[in-house]
Write a structure and sequence with these properties.
heterotrimer, A alpha+beta, B mainly alpha, C mainly alpha, B: MetI-like fold, C: mainly alpha, MetI-like fold, elongated
């Protein structure tokens, strides 16, 4: 009796413990097996140099014809060739898949003479038909193109194939930024065979272009792998010739959360990663194994739009006073560190085409001038609460921004600086882009932080035309409208230069924005990596020029 | 019940301001936007959308993502495995460690006090703090373990260990308290007095204490699911947690709805398993 | 009163007087004084924008603790109501279904939705965290009341013909009270962790306002240069959570056994 009970209770002891531990072991086992099954480590089975490149955003897709993020260009700039290229240094147009091109005198017909020695990664020959298929795809409403279609412009009528290697683009009105659009990977030419074999959803996993690297695989949120295209012999003159040290295989990985980037570098998980927080960039500089490159990104600076339709930012003198009251150099120095980031003074950054340095002298920091302007415009502290008011109406500005790009830090410093001259500020943070647009459309803000990128300042139109869909300043000025429209039609560089000088001056004279800092991409990389050069648009690395030493 | 959860999230999402189409189609003209919205069925009245959604669901169709236009099942499928791997291995660590700490703590003495400290630390310190410190020590300084990525089991070690450790505290606490309580039961004292060997005593106590622990395990499964959001962001891991986070921000309704369904089913399954286990262990049930 | 309760009350009291403990304006950024170390002027130095860490710490604590407290009130208040309705009212089955559905809902999703739905401030943060814990508390309430209902002496009272109202107010609720109070303290601990996690993810509302979670997130960037920026709020958070758990323990040792019917 005694022994039987004992045995039973022994079993009773062993069973639950065994059960629990078996469950735990099973859980770990399943976890490990499933990871092994689902992944084959791409670092293996490679000969030649393999480089891991960190992406800092999770694009909603990598199909350049459909999706719009700048991030997708990091790999895709090398998978596709474009009809024309911009030289990384001079930013002038150079031949790409088109050997040469003519623009008709009325600016409405672009004729491209294509290279005859090009083939896609799948051996499909490149010709005018291939260009036509890509354009058709972008224009097809079912593709739901997010950016490429906009780059073709509002006046794009269609194309005519004159002979197998000559194609003509026809516009209803002149649209000078067309070539700029054609130099970006969103208008990269894709293999007609590959497009025919896939649908809009599956193409992004099997993209085929003519570029120096071909796409091997894309596992969403995990990696995108490229391999060198050994047949590539039609690159622009600034692409380096392959050597033993060239990169055979590039694995792109995702580093969405900013603090993970430096750690990824230091842990040896990644060789190159951009968008480092300035504090991390500074730490890396002190580490002999790493270098940091501050790469200017042309386009709009980090800036705030003033709402010109709402009290008190509807008052020009009030806006100007705020510009004088802002010590931009101090903000940039504290948040972004001087050595990495230039201060911004106008609506386009210094690395953008047609930038006019004249804007630098318009609003030097001067609390004195700010005070004078406030006083002359009737803003005083009549109730002695330390903050200005006008006719008894207290002033409290609402600043709207998203919580990234160090905007919270910049907000904080603006708040501190403005408090000293009696301006009270509160903040509203948009939790995502749809949120921000909803607030922007409601007009319930005084300042709204938003910026866009591009080499050609034609991106300004949507933000400053009276009818622009993103005219967040809610400002309307027929003369400014004319300049912006004319600049989009003129093919003459000097004319455009003059027009954009007028535009920059007017925007700043009217104090429509508060510019803070020219956008700079802080790229950290291991010292074994060399030849890090970026395309004229700033974000996209020229992978053929990268080398890796042991 | 799943239906209630899905309905709740369906309407909650549509109250949110903002528009998924605007996230991706910043460069499109208003007409293009309208066309896309119509195609995606976003212009229909809410009741029609809801009816259509339920109908789709009944057919096992989760719809397509509003930001990537990929089928939702596919979007989730590629991210499910890494999250499951993380969740399960963290759960394994939590269970093993929790049981060990719980038993040691119930024994008392300096070892027990040490276990108590570990339990305390596990429960009180936010796990992302430990994660930051662990990454600095093991990845940056010692370079033993990778700090980011999700492509091999090695990548699992740090996130699973930190998450598992911080989940083990609750399990250990409940087990330890119930073990102590079990030893106080009159029949245990009787058995002790009768001179039953300690191992048999422990057997009895452990079986009694295991019951409440099991329900805590089920609860912790839910906690793990929520925590994967932060872990995946911190360790640059692919997974449904970070997908959920991004999809809410982007107003990608179909994805969020599908993830709710997934979360609710996981909870139900965990609860079911725990019920089943309890029934196996407790003859009264 | 037990020691942990007193300690927790002391902590809460310190947070009430936090503005008087602060030596500087917690949001004022002093240009040229970034990342300074410990000094007589700045007891715990300054952060990378030149703000006084000690002042941010005490005022941030006020914010963190009060949002957690508010969240706890929302969770316990709503939970008590739902839990009681699920046990006594005419709508029992519907309420139970609702509670179950809410429980199955990933809490972080709920918090995210509420946080994005409403503009971020202390109130919405508290609401998000409170609602996230509401279902669990309702369920605990329901179970506790049920357990209490079936206690022999209450069955006894019923058999001698005590009125339902008297039963509920005089017997059932007092019997369930230790469990409810103790689990309330647990909810407070969870709220602290949840609220700081949301803030850490950048969803804590106005990021210029000090808050322990926000301080942790911002300090993470300079953890190598200035670990004190992380250590200070992290240890305070851990202490508060521990105290809350300790309070839960003093209220009832057997609570876990009862809530095991979860």
């Amino acid at each position: 009796m005694q022994t039987r009970r004992n045995r039973r209770s022994r079993w009773g002891l062993v069973l639950p413990i065994l059960g629990v531990f078996a469950c735990a072991a099973l859980a770990i086992g399943i976890a490990i097996i499933s990871t092994i099954l689902s992944e084959d480590d791409p670092d293996e089975n490679s000969n030649g140099n393999t480089l891991v490149y960190g992406l800092t955003l999770l694009p909603s897709g990598f199909d350049p014809h459909r999706n719009s993020s700048a991030e997708l260009g990091l790999p895709m700039y090398s998978v596709y060739d474009t009809l024309v290229y911009r030289h990384p240094q001079t930013k002038a147009f150079v031949a790409g898949l088109a050997e040469s091109w003519d623009i008709s005198s009325d600016g409405r017909i672009y004729t491209f003479h294509l290279r005859q020695d090009v083939k896609f990664h799948d051996d499909t020959p490149f010709n005018a038909d291939a260009v036509g298929v890509t354009i058709d795809r972008i224009l097809n409403p079912e593709t739901r193109s997010q950016k490429a279609i906009a780059l073709l412009g509002p006046y794009f009528l269609g194309y005519v194939i004159l002979d197998p290697y000559t194609i003509e683009f026809q516009l209803s009105q002149p649209f000078t930024p067309l070539l700029d659009g054609l130099s970006q990977p969103y208008l990269g030419i894709a293999s007609p065979t590959a497009l025919a074999n896939t649908n809009d959803n599956t193409y992004q996993f099997h993209q085929v272009g003519t570029g120096p690297y071909r796409m091997v695989e894309y596992v969403p949120e995990d990696r995108l792998v490229l391999e060198r295209n050994h047949d590539y012999a039609w690159g622009p003159p600034y692409y380096a010739q392959p050597t033993d040290q060239s990169i055979e295989r590039v694995i792109f990985r995702f580093y969405e959360s900013p603090p993970t980037r430096r750690i990824g570098l230091e842990a040896g998980d990644v060789d190159v990663v951009g968008e480092l927080p300035p504090t991390d960039a500074e730490l890396l500089l002190r580490n002999q194994d790493f270098r940091v490159q501050a790469q200017p990104i042309p386009g709009q600076p980090l800036q705030y739009y003033f709402n010109t339709q709402r009290f008190p930012t509807d008052d020009l003198r009030f806006r100007q006073a705020l510009l004088f009251a802002t010590n931009r150099e101090a903000i940039v120095g504290t948040v972004f560190f001087d050595q990495f980031s230039p201060t911004a003074y106008g609506p386009i950054s210094a690395s953008t085409l047609y930038y006019d340095p004249m804007v630098q002298d318009l609003y030097p920091y001067s609390a004195e001038r700010a005070r004078d302007l406030f006083e002359s415009a009737g803003y005083t502290d009549s109730d002695n609460d330390g903050f200005l008011d006008k006719g008894g109406i207290p002033i409290e500005l609402t600043i709207v921004s998203m919580d990234f790009g160090f905007l919270p830090e910049v907000n904080q410093l603006i708040q501190s600086q403005w408090a000293e001259i009696g301006i009270q500020v509160n903040f509203m943070s948009a939790a995502g882009f749809p949120d921000l647009i909803a607030i922007a459309q409601s007009g319930e803000f005084h300042l709204l932080a938003l910026n866009d990128f591009g080499v050609d300042p034609s991106f300004l139109n949507r933000y400053y035309l009276s009818s622009g869909d993103s005219n967040w300043s809610r400002y309307s000025d027929p003369e400014l409208d004319n300049w912006l429209i004319e600049a989009n039609q003129s093919t003459d560089n000097t004319t455009r230069q003059q027009l954009y000088a007028n535009v920059q001056k007017r925007i700043m004279d009217q104090a429509l924005i508060l510019p803070i800092r020219d956008y700079v991409n802080l790229v950290g990389y291991h010292t074994s990596v060399d030849g890090l050069i970026f395309a004229a648009q700033g974000w996209w690395p020229l992978l053929p020029n990268l080398v890796q030493r042991d | 019940m799943l239906w209630v959860a899905v309905t709740l999230v369906f309407f909650a999402l549509r109250v949110l301001p903002g528009d998924a189409v605007l996230t991706t189609h910043r460069n499109s003209s208003p007409q293009q936007l309208e066309t896309i919205r119509t195609e995606l069925g976003l212009t229909q009245p809410l009741s029609v959308q809801y009816g259509g959604y339920l109908l789709q669901l009944a057919q096992g169709d989760l719809g397509i993502s509003l930001t990537s236009y990929q089928p939702v099942t596919k979007v989730i499928a590629v991210r499910l495995v890494p999250t499951l791997a993380l969740g399960l291995s963290a759960f394994g660590v939590a269970t093993t460690l929790g049981m060990l700490l719980g038993v040691i703590s119930s024994l008392g003495g300096w070892l027990g006090r040490f276990a108590d400290m570990a339990i305390l630390f596990s429960q009180a310190v936010p796990f992302y703090i430990t994660a930051i410190v662990a990454v600095i020590i093991f990845s940056v300084e010692l370079q033993w373990l990778p700090a980011s990525g999700s492509s091999s089991p090695v990548h699992l070690i740090l996130p699973a260990a930190t998450l598992g450790f911080h989940t083990s505290g609750s399990i250990a606490r409940v087990l330890s308290a119930n073990l102590r309580e079990a030893y106080q039961q009159p029949y245990m004292l009787t058995a002790q007095a009768k001179g039953l060997p300690p191992i048999d005593l422990f057997d009895h106590a452990f079986r009694i204490a295991l019951l409440p622990t099991l329900s805590v395990l089920a609860l912790q499964a839910g906690f793990l699911l929520s925590s994967t959001v932060i872990v995946e962001v911190m360790f640059s891991r692919r997974g449904v947690g970070s997908l959920l986070y991004q999809s809410v921000l982007d107003r990608d309704y179909p994805v969020v709805q599908a993830l709710t369904l997934l979360g609710a089913s996981t909870y139900l399954a965990a609860n079911g398993v725990s019920q089943l286990a309890r029934r196996q262990l407790d003859p009264r049930l | 009163m037990k020691l942990p309760v007193i300690a927790l009350l002391c902590l809460l009291f310190m947070m009430v007087i936090a503005p008087y403990l602060a030596t500087h304006d917690p949001i004022h950024a002093e240009s040229g004084h970034e990342l300074e170390s410990y000094s007589h002027e700045h007891w715990f130095g300054t952060d990378r924008l030149g703000r006084d860490v000690w002042s941010r710490f005490v005022v941030g604590g006020q914010r963190t603790l009060s949002s957690a407290l508010l969240a706890t009130l929302i969770a316990t208040g709503g939970g008590l109501l739902l839990g009681s309705l699920g046990n006594f009212g005419p709508l029992q089955s519907i309420i139970r279904l609702l509670i179950d559905a809410l429980l199955a809902f990933p809490a972080i999703l709920l918090a995210l939705v509420i946080r994005t739905l409403l503009e971020g401030n202390l109130l919405t943060l508290a609401l998000a965290v409170g609602v996230a814990n509401l279902a669990t508390y309702s369920r605990v309430t329901m179970d506790a009341l049920q357990v209490a209902q079936h206690q022999p002496y209450i069955e006894g009272a019923r058999s001698i013909g005590a009125s339902q109202w008297r039963l509920v107010t005089r017997h059932i609720i007092p019997a369930a009270l230790p469990t409810l109070a103790s689990f309330g303290a647990v909810v407070f601990a969870w709220s602290l962790l949840y609220a700081s996690a949301l803030a850490f993810l950048g969803l804590g509302g106005d990021p210029t306002q000090p808050d322990w979670g926000i301080m942790l997130q911002q300090g993470q960037g300079t953890i190598v240069q200035a670990p004190r920026l992380v250590i200070l709020p992290a240890s305070a958070l851990a202490l508060s959570v521990w105290l809350a758990y300790a309070v839960a323990d003093t209220y009832s040792i057997s609570i876990r056994k009862r809530s095991s019917r979860l």
